[in-house]
Amino acid sequence: MWRWVRQQLGFDPPHQSDTRTIYIANRFPQNGLYTPQKFIDNRIISSKYTVWNFVPKNLFEQFRRVANFYFLIIFLVQLMIDTPTSPITSGLPLFFVITVTAIKQGYEDWLRHNSDNEVNGAPVYVVRSGGLVKTRSKNIRVGDIVRIAKDEIFPADLVLLSSDRLDGSCHVTTASLDGETNLKTHVAVPETAVLQTVASLDTLVAVIECQQPEADLYRFMGRMIITQQMEEIVRPLGPESLLLRGARLKNTKEIFGVAIYTGMETKMALNYKSKSQKRSAVEKSMNTFLIIYLIILISEAIISTILKYTWQAEEKWDEPWYNQKTEHQRNSSKILRFISDFLAFLVLYNFIIPISLYVTVEMQKFLGSFFIGWDLDLYHEESDQKAQVNTSDLNEELGQVEYVFTDKTGTLTENEMQFRECSINGIKYQEINGRLVSEGPTPDSSDGNLSYLNSLSHLNNLSHLTTSSSFRTSPENETELIKEHDLFFKAVSLCHTVQISNVQTDGIGDGPWQSNLAPSQLEYYASSPDEKALVEAAARIGIVFIGNSEETMEVKTLGKLERYKLLHILEFDSDRRRMSVIVQAPSGEKFLFAKGAESSILPNCVGGEIEKTRIHVDEFALKGLRTLCMAYKQLTSKEYEEIDRRLFEARTALQQREEKLADVFQFIEKNLILLGATAVEDRLQDRVRETIEGLRMAGIKVWVLTGDKHETAVSVSLSCGHFHRTMNILELINQKSDSQCAEQLRQLARRIKEDHVIQHGLVVDGTSLSLALREHEKLFMEVCRNCSAVLCCRMAPLQKAKVIRLIKISPEKPITLAVGDGANDVSMIQEAHVGIGIMGKEGRQAARNSDYAIARFKFLSKLLFVHGHFYYIRIATLVQYFFYKNVCFITPQFLYQFYCLFSQQTLYDSVYLTLYNICFTSLPILIYSLLEQHIDPHVLQSKPTLYRDISKNRQLSIKTFLYWTILGFSHAFIFFFGSYFLIGKDISLLGNGQLLKPNHQMMFGNWTFGTLVFTVMVITVTVKMALETHFWTWINHLVTWGSIIFYFVFSLFYGGILWPFLGSQNMYFVFIQLLSSGSAWFAIILMVVTCLLLDIVKKVFERQLHPTNTEKAQMYSNTVALSDEFIALQPLSRARNQLSKLSLLKQIQVSSAWTPCAVSQKEKQRAHLLEECWNE
Fold it and tell me: Subunit composition (predicted)?
């Protein structure tokens, strides 16, 4: 704490260096001149509050909301000046809202505290003073050597020192960090790998210099300086040496590591940063409506204040005999009196702003989000995954989507790769039943029949080859063919980062792939499904990757075990789009094997069948296959020494290491000899075509953003229905300059105008997109808006986000939704209005950073068409209804001022003012907003066109808002003037027929009149909610009719008993006296019917004369639902009879609708929809 204060005052500034120096085991120099750097402890703090700051911090955050701050001001005004209502009327609702929100946030933070305490208190073992010491996780310091056993989680970010293996390697899984379940290999530097005991580690004298903490999980630069026999040895440290907090040790007995980042500086903690806040269109509309109502409130207060002083201009009304002014009032400033009266009217009318709207909306969103997780239709049984809601603030936004941006691999496809074809030295092969089948003649082949390569073991049998009728070649070509295939598949088996969980090598690789051997004995794990598919394919051909042993890679070729020394790995990165390995063969020769996209491999090749392979790669892509090219080069001893030196210098650099490594990689990966190309298939997920077609019918434009090459992406787009065969495909690809790109865009725009009748699809690649977005955004957007479907290929992750950003800020400002499954999709998921993560095989980063997560793309249709539709209708009605019932509530109060000389007399009792929004009218709308289903879910999903009825925020348009507002004002006028004219002169409410009773007010006075208005209002707004409800459950009946009953019961108890704790009780016996009058009951019923009858008539005429598609679907689905319910309630024998009758009726209706006499298109639609409902 003292250090923090000193830092804030500037006396003890935190370290500003770009690097940190860590002395292993905290063995600092003994010369006395060294001042150790100060690092934070290992406590993880995910909680937001403490016991001391919860109240002030939570209150500060809540009063940042405009509505809460507004009601706080009103409450303070009521305390400071003489206002017509008690401060309790504003203070109690405000206290209720603040308290409910604080309890919710406090409970969530308490859970976070418990989680933090559990993590921080976990036991760990640390090497101190030559022995193992058991301590708690929070006590780990930077520099401590920590021992981790198998299946334990790393408590801090550690640099691996040693393991129980001789090579110092270990396997970890980072599933809790990025969702990848594959095993990752980490290695220690050779000098520390041999220190496998506590005693030997106690002799280690070493220093680590590394970068300061950063959030990137896959980036780490540092070096270790080891002192041995008075000599310093420098070793580079990279991501392969770093064990991240939250990862778990697997397949390794124990490891020792030194803590370099602790607590909130670990990479896991740095990734806790919250996402940018997204606001829904409904919330923006709600804020607009609040501003309008605030203007109405201020206008009413100003009008009332002006009319008060206008009325009091006459002397007889300025100071009547019954309301004499005090001396202080007579001498006070007129300006101050005007302001005071204005504030008093503001307080009187402030209930037109519904404070409970916010808490109701929060509860509706929070509770409503559970329905997505509970929906069994969104549950994927194979992976045991249900839909997840990461934020409930955007539920209604699911019903407003206009653009869907989707990734391809793993989103539209399964991300389960199967090796299908390859090209080796210009010859194309297919895999059929574990055999390679050549398409066309091989060199010197006498015919064009298919050539079969069962395996390399059969290739080795030259007599078999020469006698084969389908593969007749010369011995020299046979030997060359064997060498080419052997080298190609060895490159496939060595150039990867695949791991093996269980190694059993006996009997593997001795011949053709046997289905009863390898799958049960070798299980490969890879971060990329492509790599796994290729290694498995090589094993089927006969070159089996066995695994890593120390610094070697073991491969079994034709039953013979070969060990290749792994010298260097040139890791894959998205800029190079390739990876390489440098290995030393058993013969001592050194090879570089490279694998990557054809755009990154072919330009660096100087030998091999480049043009033939390029043609084959394009052919593979047209089939929708994913392609990779393989190349190699043999290194001389001199070349390798130069490479080794450059790599060491780049990897030990602390400044600009990535740039230096990129330069070295470019120097190494050139002058390659092309071996061939591979093609793997990633099949489409189930019902992708139907889902995309449904989105299109709903008026949603679908864009596919992928990193795949042009031909592959177009092929998949055609197969999944994104592009139609009849669609005119326009292309903006391979643009080299701004001028060329602009001219091409103009040509495309002209073609679209000329062929405006047919649908167009646009294909654009990443390079051309960069040029288009640089200078020609408007022209590019014009072309895109006129295309039914857009496909962007060769896209970098940030380009995906830029495209979405471009659409978001376009003049129409459409609502966007992004769908992806990998870490490269996170940027576009966070950029879009709604982000959907697919819980696929590329990790869980997309799912963790999304707003919603689903297991399959097909679930998107129900998420939008059903849940999105329901959520939007529910919350739109909730918002409109809240404003409506508050207009009904406060307008009679405004009208009443004309009858009391604007004396600021309140019409309602203060208890009624307080409980109107909290108790009497809150539950029906809350339950409606949770359970309402205005159309059957099956109809919504089968009729995507119904989604158009709610698009563009139509239910919260100005027209709809004005309708509800005018409806509220009209009902309020009926409440007030109906009560005044019907009951105002009714003597049946007077005791003993007398106008006045001694020492009592007139029986039909202020409180009786106000109570009558309030009673009619509570009944009317509650029944109005009942009329809006289409889906009735027992809960709806309970809260709707229960709210009215509760109001009557409460009023009877409140006004029927003299409560000792109430200073004055104006309402005593008023409600009972009111209900004892038959004319009062008649007036209540008449006013309620009058208010709602006009609304009912309007709805009936609109439905009959101008029904929307939604209303048509409601009528037909209700007809079928009623028939089903009626049958379900009958005994079995009668139910069968009813079914047969309904079946006959269905046949008659459908057949008559399709006869030539049926000229009405409406009848055809009705029959078609009825038939669909029947089938469902």
Answer: Component of a P4-ATPase flippase complex which consists of a catalytic alpha subunit ATP11B and an accessory beta subunit TMEM30A.
